[in-house]
């Protein structure tokens, strides 16, 4: 009868506007899918041009080159005898749509435009695309001449339709449509669609993967069916890391799981499933069948092709599996590491430089680079030829093979401890020991001469000598002297990044890594244009609490014993003079709040959309056992004063790996003013009124 269908979901590491590389990866995925017996191949959202093209979508070149790639795909023998479902932008009647182009044997079957556009958080699809608003409606699309010459078609169906093959019916969703409350798969399933497809451009956020998995499984739990999800993976040119997780589900259970983090540019997930299992599952759900009898039907595009073979009784089918989720610590170890690798190889630099202070944040950044080196060695060991070629080009050695993470780390990672008269011997020792254990090329230097030279210019011009608070100076004198040290470190970091390899007789330059965490950025506890200013920052979207847990994970999994003393030491900037040779300055005392409190403020401000008054009201109940209403009010006011005073720093924040939903990233995620009335007079008066009433 033809019951067993074999389908493929792909996770591809596409790169915005890399049409040649994107085409090669699409071809490779199709070849793998066919070699595994698949008759249908699904790729990620906008895979031809890459998801992150942003305002390049406005350019006619992007549309032209997408069609040129499509022409190559249609004309190739590699795409014969398999339904290929690819993503690209399409201009229809002068309106730009985010589309799936589904074709078979040099014929386009359907162009399906996206119905629900992602327009929250990091997504801005409504800026570039228009949603298709004509439900169950199909129009004629006039093909460009380069496509007509291959397909022999002048027009093809464009709109909201489903495909009817010889043995089943398929319907497409695109990314956000799965998350919408009125997802198309509901009505499609009632109309007899048995296979749902979803091409995604979904990025990594800590603790998010289970939400996507639950949505996919629940899509077919109530209605029955097979659900195939393909997703982009990797860094395609900005702050986001697309985390793969291609999956195939049937009747509410996962039957195939792709990796969330890996250095493989192409991953193809294939499953063989029995259509009769869908039909028998649906047969006994009477409420579903009653609703199905009244459903408004979808236009069906007839396809003279089957996803199954006539004689398939003995074909083995896939059984349900238990999804294996990563812990948050594993996510931090793997996600930013893969993002760094993509950035390093695609920027064609020779490695990274990190100012390593011996504190938790810079140490966590160093551990992520070390994890990257682990991933590279593992990928090479598993036969990944692309990773091996990239590693050889980065270290500039033809016959090199990375086998030991510490040895590879020394080639691509330079750490630098920049001491001043305010630095303690303890932090110097911690940085040196960690560098030894991960294998980085470590530099010790002293910045006092540079600091004295800069301050000396000021003294010479003004005739005044600023002093630290402990020496009788004012708070602004002390802050200025601290900032000079921090900014000198940034200047030296870039100098060494450009010339450190030159001094060692090696080619290339280094990318400077920043290490300000998401909580410090939110509070503005950093010097503008200090070491937080870098090329990229792998921990800029991660909280201090999560970083501490990650450090503990590295102690246990990488045997980095140097991290124990770093974990136990109080966080400090070491910018004020030592007292009796020991550090007197601590971050939490400087900030006037704890990192745990900062994390709560951040989540309430961004995720719960709370202004000062709403935050006060929420914290009253959250902290009722810890603080009086007046203390809560004082804490909330202090946070909003500091947040608003320092918001301007977010405009120059180093591009950071997006990992947390309360990130203050000013670029696209957290759009707010950077010049505030920092007195918040009206808002604080509302708080005071409530405090007095209580």
From TrEMBL:
SUPFAM superfamilies: Adenine nucleotide alpha hydrolases-like, Carbon-nitrogen hydrolase
Annotated pathway: Cofactor biosynthesis; NAD(+) biosynthesis; NAD(+) from deamido-NAD(+) (L-Gln route): step 1/1
Domain of life: Eukaryota
Listed CDD domains: GAT_Gln-NAD-synth, NAD_synthase
Gene3D superfamilies documented for this protein: Carbon-nitrogen hydrolase (3.60.110.10), HUPs (3.40.50.620)
GO biological process: 'de novo' NAD+ biosynthetic process from L-tryptophan
Protein EC: 6.3.5.1
Any one Gene Ontology cellular component term annotated for this protein: cytosol
PANTHER family: GLUTAMINE-DEPENDENT NAD(+) SYNTHETASE, NH 3 /GLUTAMINE-DEPENDENT NAD + SYNTHETASE
Subunit structure, interactors included: Homohexamer.
Family: In the C-terminal section; belongs to the NAD synthetase family.
Protein name stated in the entry: Glutamine-dependent NAD(+) synthetase
Gene (UniProt): Nadsyn1
